[in-house]
Write a structure and sequence with these properties.
Elements (H helix, E strand, L loop, with lengths): L5 E5 L6 H13 L4 E5 L11 E3 L5 E2 L4 E2 L19 H16 L7 H19 L23 H12 L8 H39 L8 E4 L7 H7 L7 E8 L5 E7 L1 E3 L2 E2 L14 E4 L5 E4 L2 H42 L1
Parallel strand pairs: 1-2, 1-3, 3-5, 6-7
Antiparallel strand pairs: 4-5, 7-8, 8-12, 9-10, 11-12
Helix pairs in contact: 1-2, 1-5, 2-3, 3-4, 4-5, 5-6
Length: 341
């Protein structure tokens, strides 16, 4: 029995990230059993199940996803950037796509995050629009600036560089196939990683909601990293300074316990750890010289190190407050004398 092969039509000549990614997404939905036809002859579109970036038709219920026609002004809800062919495909088939790559029961919230993180810059570039980073917020309201656009921009540049010098040759079609494979190997894993991280973060938010952080630290499950988005949700008062978590089981049966300084910005600790002192902490494995992480084979010692770090910070803070108060009093006394005289 002859295998069912689905035909996808896209344009020939120079390819861009949007048509390559659109074709790869549709190929994934069809389990890879597709034939890519690259042509601008659009007289008989009925022979194709999917038509992307060519044909001047946007009829999603019929598998038509072109954006070049003047009347096409589709945007992602809440965004001003026009959609390219990959954006149109994702807008209409996000649920099926995310489920197909291993993420059951995806939500619109998740699709919205994925679009803004990776598809939006591709759409903007293909439509000649500038992305104003201040117009977009990522991950349920926490501003991410241009950091969120990184993967989409990177993938778009790599795909653009994969074009053959002779864009009308048969070798160009082979390059298109290579670009689709690159999208599968690089772009799809990025989406999967973002979905896993997003769901793990949401789960952590649910677990930590209402937790009392006034002690300044928390012991988390294995690999318990708390990122800035989670902190934004569960610790608005910024009371949490250190996380402690199981890193791994050691050969001698002991566990290695990691501890990390909480950071609101990358590499900026809320509070520094104390400096490494293996005489004071006999089970200590290390404390990084930048004082943001370390580990010990004893949980109680890891807790003690974090407690000592908080005490050290409070002592330094009190000294600064005392100095400031004394300096202010001196200034007041000086002003009093000046006015008196």
């Amino acid at each position: 029995m002859e295998e069912r092969v689905v035909k996808i039509l896209t344009h020939n000549g120079r390819f861009h990230a949007d048509d390559v990614i659109a074709c790869e997404l549709l190929s994934i939905l069809e389990n890879g059993e597709v034939e890519i036809v690259r042509s601008r002859h659009t007289e008989d579109l009925n022979q194709y199940k999917w038509v992307v970036d060519v044909g001047k038709q946007y009829i999603p219920e019929h598998g038509r996803f072109d954006h070049h026609q003047e009347e096409c002004s589709e945007t992602w809800p809440g965004c001003s950037i026009l959609l390219s062919s990959s954006g149109l495909v994702f807008l209409n088939l996000w649920k099926e796509i995310l489920e197909k790559i291993g993420h059951p029961n995806p939500t619109w919230e998740e699709a919205d995050m994925i679009y803004k993180k990776v598809f939006l810059p591709i759409d903007a570039h293909d439509n000649g629009q500038k992305v104003d980073e201040h117009n977009y917020t990522f991950l349920l309201g926490l501003k991410g600036g241009c950091k969120g656009y990184g993967e989409g921009i990177k993938v778009g540049r790599v795909i653009a560089d994969m074009n053959h010098d002779d864009v009308n040759s048969e070798k160009q079609n082979l390059r298109f196939a290579d670009a689709m494979k690159y999208a599968f190997d690089s772009f799809i894993p990025v989406i999967s990683a973002m979905m896993k991280t997003y769901r793990a973060n949401k789960n952590m938010v649910e677990q930590l909601q209402g937790f009392d952080f006034s002690c300044g630290m928390i012991v988390l499950p294995k690999g318990g990293y708390v990122n800035s988005w989670v902190l934004h949700k569960v610790d608005p008062k910024k009371q949490l300074f250190f996380t402690i978590y199981e890193k791994k089981q050691l050969a001698d049966g002991k566990k290695e316990w990691g501890f990390s300084a909480v950071q609101d910005k990358r590499f900026v600790n809320r509070i520094d750890l104390v400096k490494e002192d293996k005489e004071k902490y006999p089970n200590l494995i290390f404390i990084h010289k930048k004082l943001f992480c370390g580990s010990s084979t004893d949980l109680e010692e890891a807790i003690q190190i974090c407690e000592d770090s908080i005490k050290q910070y409070n002592t330094k803070r009190l000294k600064k407050i005392g100095y400031f108060s004394a300096a202010t009093a001196g200034f007041g006394f000086l002003c009093y004398n000046l006015f008196k005289n």
